[in-house]
């Protein structure tokens, strides 16, 4: 069974690596990789190859990088590969109907997608961030048959996992990438061996959309509850990083903890006010309850523990506020 793989970031590269390692014994072979064009990155803004391209080239796979798949030329190039199935994971380009129809319908499974949520919850671009922001207790990976709608296709396999109470998007991403790789290998192995896998239509209930993350969302609103702010800090780690103003500069808050403090502790204090500096924690009043900040980063600096930040000469005045342009 000949497979074309389409993906771009690390999440996709982990799946591609699993397919390359499993293929010879499982009855399938990856014959080419599609990925987005090289993008400028870093301080020098030099062109940078995607994680999928780097892996594919290291394994001798042909790599295709069309800026779009909507042109007749790009579609003819794909059709010439004569693939049986196309596997898609975080590719970043829309697949028009002509592309969805290109792979031979082996068992009726033309294009398969590895999606990092339990569909129909969190269809769209940022399912991991949104699951953490919403306080979901669990998530998972779905192997889905692709169709023209946004992540609307029938699901062939789902893998469930709990979301840790302090787990960040980066940590959950890495776990889901492994689960997705294992799931797609299992599905393709079954198909290559001639086994039929039923695909279940998605429920019409519980549909949510994981819209792209914006930098504006990463700004902390201290009038929100401590629970909501804690989720935001976890959800935006590592990108783009939750941020707040402190003494006239924007700093990033990388880690926090929920703490139990007496209810009257913040009575009379405004949201964002410093309540106490205790060891590894800087206690801050929120719209409800108190949040302990544990890791911060100043502009141009490195991430550090709050204890290190405080030892470096930062002496918060009790009642001094985060989230305002200057101290006080």
What does this structure look like?
This protein is an alpha/beta fold. Helices cover 26% and strands 26% of the residues. It contains eight helices and 17 strands. The chain has a seven-stranded mixed beta sheet. Helix 1 links the parallel strand 1 and strand 2. The chain is elongated, with a radius of gyration of 23 Å.
Summary?
The protein has 328 residues and is α/β, with parallel strands linked by helices.
Q: Radius of gyration from the CA trace? A: 23 Å
Estimate the mean pLDDT confidence.
Answer: 92
User: How many angstroms does the end-to-end distance come to?
Assistant: 66 Å
- Give the biggest beta sheet: 7 strands, mixed
- The strand order across the widest sheet is 5-2-1-6-7-9-10
Overall shape: elongated
Give me some keywords for this one:
17 strands, 328 residues, six-stranded antiparallel β-sheet, alpha/beta
How are the secondary structure elements laid out?
Elements: E1 2-7, H1 10-26, E2 29-34, E3 39-41, E4 46-48, H2 51-58, E5 63-64, H3 72-79, E6 85-89, H4 97-100, E7 111-115, E8 123-124, H5 127-133, E9 138-145, E10 155-162, H6 169-192, E11 209-210, H7 226-235, E12 242-246, E13 249-258, E14 274-278, E15 281-285, E16 290-297, E17 304-305, H8 306-311
Parallel strand pairs: 1-2, 1-6, 2-5, 6-7, 8-11
Antiparallel strand pairs: 3-4, 7-9, 9-10, 12-13, 13-16, 14-15, 15-16, 16-17
Helix pairs in contact: 1-2, 1-6, 5-7
């Amino acid at each position: 069974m000949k497979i074309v793989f389409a993906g771009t970031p690390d999440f996709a590269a982990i799946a591609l690596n699993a397919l390359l390692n499993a293929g010879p014994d499982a009855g399938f072979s990856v014959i080419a990789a599609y990925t987005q064009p090289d993008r400028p990155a870093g301080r020098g803004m030099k062109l940078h190859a995607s994680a999928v391209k780097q892996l594919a080239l290291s394994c001798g796979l042909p790599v295709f990088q069309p800026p779009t798949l909507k042109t007749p030329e790009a579609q003819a190039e794909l059709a010439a590969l004569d693939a049986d199935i196309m596997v898609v994971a975080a590719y970043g380009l829309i697949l028009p109907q002509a592309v969805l129809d290109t792979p031979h319908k082996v068992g009726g499974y033309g294009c398969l997608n590895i999606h990092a949520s339990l569909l129909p919850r969190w269809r769209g671009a940022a399912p991991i961030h949104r699951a953490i922001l919403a306080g979901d207790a669990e998530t998972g990976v779905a192997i889905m048959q692709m169709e023209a709608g946004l992540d609307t296709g029938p699901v062939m396999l789902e893998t469930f996992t709990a979301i840790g109470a302090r787990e960040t998007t980066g940590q959950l991403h890495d776990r889901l990438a492994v689960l997705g790789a294992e799931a797609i290998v299992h599905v393709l192995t079954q198909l290559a061996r001639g086994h039929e896998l039923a695909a279940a239509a998605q429920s019409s209930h519980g549909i949510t959309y994981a819209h792209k993350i914006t930098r504006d969302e990463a700004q902390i609103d201290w009038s929100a509850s401590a629970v909501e702010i804690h989720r935001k800090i976890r959800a935006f780690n590592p990108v783009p990083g939750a941020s707040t103003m402190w003494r006239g500069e924007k700093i990033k808050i990388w880690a926090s903890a929920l703490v139990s403090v007496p209810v009257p502790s913040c009575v009379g204090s405004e949201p964002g006010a410093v309540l106490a500096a205790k060891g590894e924690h800087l206690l801050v009043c929120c719209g409800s309850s108190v949040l302990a900040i544990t890791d911060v980063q100043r502009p141009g600096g490195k991430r550090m523990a709050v204890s290190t930040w405080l030892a470096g000469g930062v002496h918060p005045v009790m009642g001094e506020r985060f989230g305002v342009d200057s101290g006080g």
